[in-house]
Amino acid sequence: MKRVTATGVRVDDRLSPTDVTVKSGECIHVLGENGAGKSTLLLTLAGLLPPSSGSLMIDAAPAHSMPPAVFAAFRSFHTQHASDPFGISVREYLSFFSTAAVSTLLPGVINDVLDIGHLLGRRVSELSGGERQRVDIARTLLQVWPAIREGRALIFMDEPFSSLDIRHKYKLANYLTSLASAGNSCIVSSHELNLSANYSHRVWLMRQGQVVHQGAPEKVMTPETLGPVFHCDMRVEHARNMIEIHVIQPAAKQ
Ligand SMILES: Nc1ncnc2c1ncn2[C@@H]1O[C@H](COP(=O)(O)OP(=O)(O)OP(=O)(O)O)[C@@H](O)[C@H]1O
C-alpha cells in the first residue's frame, strides 16, 4: 500500500521537482553528500516543510488536509538539531511524548535497542552526544508507539546514526528494518554507506537537490552511481551476503 506519494514536489533553491513514493513495509535510506537535499526532502515528505509546488499525498489524501493531531499520531520525525529541554530529566522529557504511564514509559524493545533505561533519572542537558541522540530516537518512536504496534507508523529519521557508536548504529539500523517488516515505513537519511547498503529495502541517491537514482541497494549502489554522487572512486564487493563499499580515492569534484 502506498503511504506517501510525492509528485513534482519542489522547494525553492533546495529541492528540484521530485517524484517518489513510500510504501508500507519499506525501509528507505536517503544518501548524498552534504547539502544534497536529504533533510529538505525528508521534511517535505513528512509534511513539515510546505513545498513551493507539487503534490504530496499521505494515505491517498492531500497531506495539508490532514488534522495535525491525526498526523502526529502516526508520523514522527527525528531531527538532527534537537533543542535542549533545559534542566529536565530524561524520564520527564520522554513522558511528554508518550501516553503510557511513567512506570511503563519505556517499552522493553526500545530499551534493548537504544539502551537508555539507566539514563532515565539523568538530566537531558548532561548527557553525552550519543546518549542524547539515543534518547531523541526513543522520543521519536514513543510519539507514534501505538501506531508502530499496529504496523502503520511513518517514521522519518534525519541522520539517526551520526553520533552513535558502532554497536548502536547496527542495532538501530536492524531494528528499523524489523519495524518495516511489521508494516511500518521508515525513511532514513544517512552518511553510513555500508550500513545503508545492508539495512535498507531501497535507497534514494541524491545530488544537488535531486533524487538521481532509486532502487534496491544491490542495484543502485554501484561504483558508477556512487562515484558522481560522492565525488569519490568506490569499489563495491558482494561477500558473505553483505554489500561492502570501499573508498579507493577521493576524486576531483565534477
Ligand atoms: N532553512 C533553510 N533555508 C534556506 N536554505 C536551506 C535551509 N536549510 C538548508 N538549506 C539549503 O538547502 C540545501 C539542502 O540542504 P539539506 O539540509 O537538505 O541537505 P542535506 O543533504 O540534508 O545535507 P547534510 O548531509 O549536510 O545534512 C543546502 O544548500 C542548504 O544550504
Task: Lay out the secondary structure.
Layout: E1 2-11, E2 15-23, E3 27-31, H1 38-45, E4 53-58, E5 61-62, H2 68-72, E6 75-78, H3 90-95, H4 108-114, H5 129-143, H6 145-149, E7 154-158, H7 166-181, E8 185-189, H8 193-198, E9 202-207, E10 210-215, H9 217-220, H10 223-230, E11 232-239, E12 242-250
Parallel strand pairs: 3-8, 3-9, 6-7, 7-8
Antiparallel strand pairs: 1-2, 1-4, 4-5, 9-10, 11-12
The structure holds adenosine-5'-triphosphate.
Adenosine-5'-triphosphate binds at residues 14, 32, 34-40.
Protein name: Vitamin B12 import ATP-binding protein BtuD
Pfam families: ABC_tran
Domain ABC transporter: 4-233
Key terms for this structure?
six-stranded mixed β-sheet, 254 residues, alpha/beta, 30% strand, single chain, binds adenosine-5'-triphosphate, Rossmann fold, four-stranded antiparallel β-sheet
The string of secondary-structure elements, in order, is: EEEHEEHEHHHHEHEHEEHHEE
Spans of at least 5 consecutive residues with low confidence: none
What is Rg?
Answer: 18 Å
Q: Can you tell me the CATH topology?
A: Rossmann fold
The CATH architecture: 3-Layer(aba) Sandwich
If you average the pLDDT, what whole number results? 94
- What does the main sheet amount to? 6 strands, mixed
Q: Please bin the fraction of helical residues.
A: 25-40%
Q: Which hetero ligands occur in this complex?
A: adenosine-5'-triphosphate
Strand content: 25-35%
Judging from the principal axes of the Cα atoms, what is the shape?
globular
> How many domain regions?
1
- Spatial order of the strands in the main sheet? 6-7-8-3-9-10
Count of helical segments? 10
> Alpha-carbon distance between the termini?
39 Å
